[in-house]
Specification:
The structure holds three protein chains of three kinds. By secondary structure, chain A is mainly α. In chain A, about 70% of the residues lie in helices and about 0% in strands. Chain A has one domain: NADH:ubiquinone/plastoquinone oxidoreductase, chain 3 (Methane Monooxygenase Hydroxylase, Chain G, domain 1, Up-down Bundle). Chain A is built from four helices and no strands. Chain B has one domain. Chain B is about 75% helix and about 0% strand. Chain C is mainly α. Helix content of chain C is about 75%, strand content about 0%. Chain C is built from three helices and no strands. Chain C is elongated. Classes of the chains: A mainly alpha, B mainly alpha, C mainly alpha. Chains B and C meet through α6, α7 and α10 of B and α1, α2 and α3 of C. Chain C: It is found in: Membrane.
Chain lengths: ~120, ~500, ~100
């Protein structure tokens, strides 16, 4: 347990420092809210519309594809460690697994999931 | 090291062929989709059907009869061969039904075929699995494909809602399964069914350790499986999902996952946990009672066709759970026979529902069936005899299967199950006959009846074959008896 | 510390996920998160059993569960997206097109 003590000190110091840095301006600075001061800035005009844009679905698609291939890589890690012991059979099994995932990759490429981003 | 696994590939030839076939179909579909959207689905259906037929032939001519493969994770025996054959046949029937359905619903996604083939592959692996890990992978494989298939019609609100509900319930029940499996693993140190069976020999109902802790894991496992086969009291999701999903997918749901899941139930509970008979027999006893009662009473209140078929399938699951609860060889044989006849009846029922399409769309309410006798008398006759068979009327196939199961239950002294089975058959008779009355004897109010869109060749063939089966299995049931007996013997 | 304490933790996490699906009155994203919580609890369960039994099988099982859970949540979110596109809301109250 004693080897974790420096980490505990680190935790306390970082927590304390960030609280001080955020808390002191909050306490010391004057806070007089004025309707002109807190409204959204749009080059001097009144805001025309809600500034938030619609969430583009391609971000979600890229995230999902990343997850799938990341899981493929997570299977590659232990395989690479024991490759010396499982010889050719282990190698070709993993190649078969990668081929199936490559088929999925070809499918998504052809369907256009990787365009415009 | 390589030579240790050579015969594994021999045993897995059907699955490997199906995998390679569907990969080829996927590559062909996605590469050549550009100019030929309209024919791509029918091309895929034909070649996919051919792929399934070849897999069926490979299965029947397999060089290995009994073997444990892949480092104790998969097994091939008589039951797995029987159930895999039934699963492949059911998917072939679904393909036959989908030709006209995809055209009429204007579904242009060829991935429909790929997903169905993937689900079939996973069902075959599920039936062969011999270990909790491989079983979980196969269950999730199947579920993921079916979640997408349930939500196939993306612009239809019912379909997306059905997909969402099916997803939530499927993931929830997989969570229960995993919890049970993790408890069993923690208490025994192994996940292999054969090892569990050997480990638990001689456990009696008074042994405190096992009865306290392993039974908890067993409870979670059985609840998870009962969720997935939509047995009462865990059946609430299936009417909604069956109603919302595209009709052909509903037909697949009613037939194929139940086949595979009964195989899984038999393997887990007869091979792995047979010594806990007195515990899980009570669970299946109760759920069988509840399913038969809910299936018959629930269907009385339905006004939509697909929900009615969902409740009737809950009732059928109840009958099959009787066979599971017996713990005897006859119960197993009864389940296998009932699965075969259930397959034939359900394919027939869904073929009829799919044939009732008019120019406005497919029938949703029971009242759309009215006066079928005037529109198409042969279809009305087919449907009425199928409904009689589902109710268990004597010279038809359904009677044979129920008769066998009730005798198996009586032999295992489960008297209340048999009595309640007969009673709920009588109650289900009531609503089946009310549908027949609607078809034949309804007052013809409107002068013009909406004409039916014609039935294409594949659906007509399926209707004919299944109707023939329903009528004449009773006259010559011995090949089916032999098959199911051989399948059951492989478990004992 | 000992096996029982980590089993308590994992069981509590599993129960939180389970109850989260049932007591949810807001939206479907909470259901998806609760499902992931259930799977997390199960993973913890398996890993603590694997440590106490000194067996690698639990960790292998947990690795497979992780992979499948991620793929499953991807598909679940995809179904949710098409549902939202059609209905415009993910409120639980509106998922009653089909009664029951």
């Amino acid at each position: 347990m004693t080897e974790f003590f420096p980490i505990f000190i680190f935790l306390i110091i970082s927590l304390g420092l960030s609280l001080i840095l955020v808390g002191i301006p909050f306490i010391v600075a004057p806070q007089k809210a004025d309707p002109e001061k807190i409204s959204a800035y749009e080059c001097g005009f009144d805001p025309f519309d809600d500034a938030r844009g619609k969430f583009d679905i391609r971000f979600y698609l890229v995230a999902i594809l990343f997850i799938i291939f990341d899981l493929e890589v997570s299977f590659l890690f232990p395989w690479s460690l024991v490759l010396g012991e499982i010889n050719f059979f282990g190698f070709w099994t993993m190649i078969f697994f990668l081929l199936i995932l490559t088929l999925g990759f070809v499918y998504e490429w052809k369907k256009g999931a990787l365009d415009w981003e | 090291m390589f030579y240790l696994f050579e015969s594994d590939f021999l045993g897995l030839i059907p699955e490997t062929f199906l995998l390679l076939g569907l990969s080829t179909l996927l590559g062909y579909g996605v590469w050549y989709e550009k100019g030929r959207e309209s024919e791509m689905t029918s091309h895929q259906l034909w070649v996919g059907g051919l792929c399934l037929a070849f897999t069926f032939i490979l299965l029947c001519e397999s060089p290995l009869m009994n073997m444990i493969l892949c480092f104790n994770t998969l097994i091939i025996d008589g039951m797995s061969a029987y159930l895999k054959a039934l699963i492949l046949l059911s998917t072939l029937c679904i393909f036959g039904l989908s030709f006209s359905y995809l055209q009429q619903e204007r579904i242009k996604a060829f991935e429909y075929v790929i997903l169905l083939l993937l689900a079939t592959l996973s069902l075959m692996l599920m039936v062969s699995s011999y270990d909790f890990i491989s079983l979980y992978l196969a269950i999730e494989f199947q579920s993921l494909g079916l979640y997408v298939l349930a939500a196939l019609k993306r612009d239809n609100e019912y379909s997306t809602e059905a997909g969402l509900k099916y997803f939530v319930l499927g993931a929830f029940s997989s969570g229960f399964y995993l919890f049970g499996a993790s408890l069993i693993y923690g208490l025994t140190g192994t996940t292999n069914f054969e090892d569990l069976g050997i480990l638990f020999t001689g456990v009696g109902p008074t042994d405190l350790f096992t009865q306290g802790s392993v039974v908890v894991g067993l409870l979670f496992l059985s609840v998870a499986f009962l969720f997935k086969i939509s047995a009462a009291p865990f059946h609430m999701w299936s009417p909604d999902v069956y109603e919302g999903a595209p009709t052909v997918i509903t037909a697949f749901f009613s037939v194929a996952p139940k086949l595979a899941l009964f195989g899984v139930l038999i393997r887990v509970f007869y091979l792995g946990f047979f010594d806990f008979l007195f515990s899980w027999q009570q669970i299946f006893f109760f759920c069988s009672l509840a399913s038969m009662v809910f299936g018959s009473f629930g269907a009385l209140a339905q006004v939509k066709i697909k929900r009615l078929l969902a409740f009737s399938s809950i009732g059928h699951v109840g009958y099959m759970l009787i066979g599971l609860a017996t713990g005897s060889l006859q119960g197993l044989q009864g389940i296998f026979l009932y699965l075969l006849i259930y397959l034939v009846m359900t394919i027939n029922a869904f073929s009829v529902v799919l044939s009732l399409r008019t120019h406005e769309g497919e029938p949703r309410f029971l009242l759309d069936l009215k006066n079928l006798n005037l529109k198409s008398p042969i279809l009305a006759l087919t449907f009425s005899l199928t409904l009689f068979s589902m109710a268990g009327i004597p010279p038809l196939a359904g009677f044979l299967s129920k008769f066998y199961l009730f005798f198996a239950a009586l032999d295992a002294s489960l008297y209340s199950l048999a009595i309640l089975g007969v009673l709920s058959s009588v109650i289900s008779c009531f609503y089946y006959i009310s549908i027949i009355k609607l078809m034949y004897f309804h007052k013809a109010e409107e002068v013009q009846l909406k004409p039916l869109v014609g039935i294409d060749g594949q659906k007509g063939f399926l209707l004919g074959i299944t109707f023939f089966g329903i009528l004449f299995i009773f006259l010559y049931p011995s090949p089916f008896f032999l098959l199911s007996h051989a399948a059951a013997l492989s478990i004992s | 510390m000992s096996l029982i304490h980590s089993l308590h933790v994992s069981f509590v996490v599993f129960l939180l996920g389970l109850v989260g699906i049932y007591l949810n009155r807001k939206n479907i994203i909470l259901v998806l998160m609760s499902i992931e919580l259930m799977l997390l609890g199960i993973n913890l369960n398996l890993l603590s059993f694997s440590v106490s039994l000194d067996d690698l099988l639990g960790q292998i099982f947990a690795l497979f569960i992780l992979t499948v859970a991620a793929a499953e949540s991807a598909i679940g979110l995809a179904i949710l997206v098409i549902y939202f596109r059609l209905r415009g809301t993910i409120d639980i109250e509106f998922i009653r097109l089909m009664k029951g």
